[in-house]
Amino acid sequence: MKITQTASIDSAPSTVAQVLHLSVIVAALGYFVDIYDLLLFGIVRVPSLRDLGVPQAELLKQGLFLLNMQMGGMLLGGLIWGVLGDKRGRLSVLFGSILLYSLANLANAAVTSVPIYGVLRFIAGVGLAGELGAAVTLVSETLHTSKRGYGTALIAGIGILGAIFAWFVADMTNWRTAYVLGGVLGLGLLLLRVRVTESGMFTQLDRRKRDVRQGDLTLLFGSRERIKRYLACIFVGVPVWTVIGVLITFAPEFAAEMGVKGTVTAGSAIAFCYGGTSVGGVVAGGLSQYWMSRKRALFVFLAITAALVPVYLSCTGVSAGFLDFIFVLLGFGAGYWSVFMTISAEQFGTNLRATVATTVPNFVRGSVVPVTAVFQLLRHQLNLRQSAGVVALVVFVLAFMAAASLEESSHKDLNYLEM
After folding, report:
1. pTM of this prediction?
2. Among 20, 19, 26, 23, which Cα is nearest to 7's?
3. Of the given ranges (95-99, 280-284, 328-332), which has the lowest mean pLDDT?
4. Is residue 7 a part of any domain in this protein?
5. Could you give the CA distance from residue 142 to residue 135 in angstroms, rounded to a whole number?
6. What is the DSSP letter of 261?
7. Tell me: the pLDDT tens digits for 295-307?
8. How many domains does the chain divide into?
9. Residue 179 lies in a domain
């Protein structure tokens, strides 16, 4: 069913004018703060746990616990914010989610024990779950059909730089100050959000909501075809967070097993990886527009990432500088995240779009929980690199199969409803 869009920028005079729309700029800055807060724990994991008195032998175990608490919060938050985004509007989610994770990160600066740390990472995870999906939904429904890829590429390119900024801040200050700054940046961003207007598609839909099921999970999961589409979107993105959540976050442990010459820290690994991801996101989004095919760009970057994983795992006795270069390349391949977010939003109608665009990336991020659980289980029989290799093989095979099943949506008209 078609609906009329009343608030778009179709008449903008140029591609640049459309892509630099206020909603895109604010979404990109929001994602910057989101990534800063999301990746900050991985960067300050070791110094913060040491400061809390965790012994060296327990750093990996307690780090996984806190990471899983954060990702568990994102799974719950994805459902909450996704449904609210379709029922109450995209802007309500942007305001509510950023307020929650900003306050949680301010509280993180004052933790005195691992259990309290875990609770606050869970709350922060709930808040972080709403930012990206709502922003991508809003931009997808605001930009002209032919410009959506550029908009989400810009969001990814600028937003992902938040990881590098987090590394810089953590390196220049202590971990508590870094959490405070994250909270302050989030609260400051709320002031910019005041000028952003709601999606025209949602506004039209909201006026007739008595006739339409909005953010209804029974509608989403009430059809085998919709379930298949939904799961395919999730599986396509899992390799990104397998790379980030396992290979990059625990780079110091991998470097120790590889006999790397020099010092490798989680902070530097994340910064180098996300530097590559920022460039990869822009390139992947641009290519999806140039080729007029989301799927082609998706397959190319999936293949790049899949090829680089065994290269990384086979490194032995290399220098820390060479490993940093591999981190950049892995990040570049994982830059297909921008295309993944766009194609996920484009697979579903306006009355389910925020639910899907918000829950899918958070289920992908939350996939770190089962992925790391399997990774840990395999370590009883295999070494660190072998365990990671088995996990990576499974997730990449599933991702390629899922990508093949998705509909090409490069120039798809999003003015329709799921009934």
Report:
1. 0.80
2. 23
3. 95-99
4. no
5. 11
6. B
7. 999 999 999 999 9
8. 1
9. yes
